[in-house]
């Protein structure tokens, strides 16, 4: 039972920590970001299993984390509040020539991140961009300006 409780608590702690870290997706992560994720995994495994390195304890931990994920997904379907807490909401960081500096600071994003997404979308001129939105999963959507 101890493994189940520790795995459930670890799931919630890691979920909270990931929300604090921010919205970078795997494709946008720098090596620095990947180090944090690997450390989370190692520390969590040690904390959940402790001295019990048995196959049974490991599988109990795996199934508990899996069931926690299913539970949180189910709760997100039934509650907009839970969905917003777990996944966040899209955030506009560029609106018709103006950078939302406060929002970008909270997301720990730079103009260079948005410009990269703009170029990846085939735009070379910032004036061609109407909106830039950081989506819930960390991807950046670029909405082009309408031609006159």
Automatic annotation (TrEMBL):
Q: Which residues form the YetF-like N-terminal transmembrane domain?
A: 2-74
Q: Which Gene3D superfamilies match?
A: bsu07140 like domains (3.30.240.20)
The record's annotation in Pfam families points to: DUF421, YetF_N
- Which parts of the chain span the membrane according to its record? 6-22, 34-50, 56-75
Q: Which InterPro entries match?
A: DUF421 (IPR007353), UPF0702_alpha/beta_dom_sf (IPR023090), YetF_N (IPR048454)
Major location (coarse): membrane
List locations, semicolon-separated. Answer: Cell membrane
* Keyword field: Cell membrane, Membrane, Transmembrane, Transmembrane helix
Q: How does it sit in the membrane?
A: Multi-pass membrane protein
Asked if the record carries the keyword Methyltransferase, the reply is no
Q: Does the keyword field hold Transmembrane helix?
A: yes
One CC-aspect GO term? plasma membrane
Membership in a protein family? Belongs to the UPF0702 family.
**Protein name, UniProt field:** DUF421 domain-containing protein
Organism whose genome encodes this protein: Lichenibacterium ramalinae
């Amino acid at each position: 039972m101890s493994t189940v409780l520790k795995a459930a608590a670890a799931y919630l702690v890691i979920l909270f920590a990931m929300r604090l870290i921010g919205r970078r997706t795997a494709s946008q992560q720098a090596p620095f970001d990947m180090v944090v994720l690997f450390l989370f995994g190692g520390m969590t495994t040690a904390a959940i299993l402790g001295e019990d390195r048995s196959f049974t304890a490991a599988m109990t931990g795996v199934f508990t984390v899996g069931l926690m994920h299913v539970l949180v997904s189910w709760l997100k379907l039934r509650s907009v509040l839970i969905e917003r807490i777990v996944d966040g909401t899209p955030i506009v960081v560029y609106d018709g020539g103006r950078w939302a500096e406060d929002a970008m600071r909270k997301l720990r994003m730079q103009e260079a991140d948005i410009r990269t997404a703009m170029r990846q979308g085939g735009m070379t001129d910032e004036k061609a961009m109407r909106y830039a939105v950081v989506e819930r999963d960390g991807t950046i959507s670029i909405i082009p300006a309408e031609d006159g």
